[in-house]
Design brief:
Elements lengths: L2 E2 L4 E3 L6 E3 L13 H27 L4 H22 L2 H9 L9 H16 L6 H12 L7 E11 L3 E8 L4 E7 L3 H15 L12 H14 L3 H14 L6 E2 L3 E5 L2 E5 L4 E2 H7 L2 H21 L2 E3 L7 E3 L5 E3 L5 E3 L5 H14 L2 H10 L11 H8 L11 E2 L2 H12 L17 H17 L2 E2 L1 H8 L2 H7 L11 H6 L13
Length: 494
């Protein structure tokens, strides 16, 4: 039986020889070992405490508290990004979840993180054939090759906790075989424990947040992605929901055993390629299709696709959007979500600061006893509604940067920093921010308002109301029924 060793090797007792679990990365260095991972993560709060202590001395020398605090916060943010960007597995995924904050940093501080994340994506560890074969046997039995006519030992794609191989199933179908890295669970468990320990650093960004609850919600999201049985069930559910859909395709699950998931192979142009070299018309269409898929999922089928990352989409030869990776999916919306959306939109479009304060307190986005500047909050939130105010709108990274800078400014007086977020909202925020980020990278232009209102029709009634006429009731049950409508053609602006 092969035994895991801390040096990235395994010992084959049948031969007495050592073989590497992972290939050496493109930078000539093997993946970070557990002890090093833990040390890097554990160093974050220590460094944070050191900066705070040094800040006392700088204040004593005459520097203002605001200047010192800002310096501490910026350097801590940079350190967090660098460490998460350098590590593999769960830490890398957490780094991606935090990537939205990179836009809020000055370019000179953001650059090291961007470089680290780029290196991470380009040098993900590859399992060598002996390790792949051992992992397949561990989940499917020693006769695992019987299930396949062909099996390509070379990986076709990599992920943070596993890799994908192309194969031909015994009935002749081309399939994708997703295999989890040996030791991935232990690595993720260690990372999450460290995350819980360093979660207090989140106060650098949002000092008013319920850090413990949100941290646990993030941990649950990551842990769920290790469950291939649950992922297979989610994929089956999405495949049924979108069966024979003219615009979307979800590959069928062929088999799932242990840490191996086998699905239909999906042909098509990766969205990453369209991001890099697609025409603007292709980019517009891809972005609008992504938006439609995510919206239609939770409004028509009660299913939230939680990871709209570019690597999870393909434009198929027939023009449909192919979707893979269903490890982060949830039932959505929870009870009361429609009312939340209605209250916020009423406040922003037809109300004012007072209405926004009521909505914010009612739905738990600020501590009950906390005072905050509602005028500043209203001024910060209203610009984010700009896409709703135009028949067509182009999303872009500069536009997103403005919104992020406004809401994540590290000034102590930034009102958004005084807010919190109910833990149950974490998957929705992750999905929404990732989707918006990708659409901005694509520079998607289209009828965004019409598309959103098609799937969330009760907001149309809100937008049509005159200012101050917010006493008219909106029938949310009727609004949900109206979601089952014919989808309009996606507008492509030339």
């Amino acid at each position: 039986m092969a035994k895991r060793r801390g040096n990235g090797q395994q010992n084959d007792e049948s031969t007495g020889k050592r073989t590497r679990l992972f290939a050496v990365g493109s930078n000539g260095k093997p993946p970070v070992r557990a002890a090093v991972r833990n040390a890097k993560l554990a160093a974050l709060p220590v460094a944070f405490a050191g900066r705070q202590a040094a800040g006392v001395g700088r204040r004593a020398m005459g520097r203002s508290s605001a200047e010192v605090n800002r310096d501490i916060q910026l350097r801590t943010a940079q350190h967090i990004f660098e460490v998460l960007g350098e590590l593999k597995g769960c830490a890398a995924k957490l780094g991606q979840l935090l990537a939205i904050y990179e836009l809020a940093l000055p370019p000179d501080l953001a650059e090291p993180y961007k470089m680290a994340l780029s290196q991470l994506q380009d040098s993900a560890p590859a399992m060598l054939p002996p390790t792949v074969h051992a992992a397949m046997a561990a989940s499917m039995g020693d006769n695992w090759r019987w299930h396949f006519r062909e099996f390509d030992d070379r990986r076709a794609a990599a992920a943070s906790i596993g890799q994908v191989h192309r194969a031909v199933w015994r009935d002749g179908r081309a399939v994708a075989v997703k295999v989890m890295y040996p030791g991935a669970r232990e690595s993720v468990a260690s990372d999450l424990e460290q995350l819980r320990r360093i979660s207090m650093l989140a106060t650098v960004f949002l000092p008013g947040a319920d850090v413990k609850s949100v941290t646990e919600a993030i941990c649950r999201c990551v842990e769920e992605e290790l469950d291939y049985a649950a992922e297979a069930q989610w994929q089956r559910t999405f495949a049924v929901a979108y069966a024979d859909d003219p615009e979307f395709h979800v590959p069928q699950v062929i088999e799932q055993r242990g840490d191996v998931l086998i699905t239909e192979w999906l042909e098509g142009t990766p969205l990453t390629r369209i991001l890099a070299s697609g025409t603007q018309a292709e980019r517009d269409r891809a972005g609008m299709l992504m938006l439609r898929f995510v919206l239609s999922g939770w409004t028509s089928h009660g299913l939230l696709y939680g990871d709209p990352h570019p690597g999870n989409f393909r434009i198929m030869p027939d023009g449909r959007l192919g979707v893979v990776d269903f490890g982060a999916c949830y039932e959505w919306p929870p009870e009361g979500f429609d009312q939340l959306a209605l209250n916020y939109c009423q406040a922003i479009f037809n109300g004012g600061p007072h209405d926004l304060e009521v909505a914010t307190r009612t739905h738990g986005f600020v501590e009950a006893s906390r005072d905050f500047d509602i005028e500043d909050l209203f001024a910060a939130v209203v610009p984010c509604s700009e896409p709703f105010r135009h028949s067509t709108f182009r999303l872009s990274t500069p536009w997103l940067r403005k919104q992020v800078l406004r809401t994540t400014d590290l000034r102590l007086t930034n009102v958004v920093r005084q807010l919190t977020m109910p833990a149950y909202f974490t998957p929705f925020v992750r999905s929404t921010l990732t989707l918006i980020g990708v659409m901005c990278q694509l520079e998607t232009e289209g009828a965004l308002r019409a598309e959103i209102l098609r799937w969330v029709p009760f907001l149309d009634e809100v937008l049509e109301q005159a200012v101050g006429d917010d006493t008219l009731p909106v029938d949310l049950a009727l609004a949900r029924q109206r979601r089952a409508v014919t989808r309009p053609d996606i507008s492509v602006v030339s």
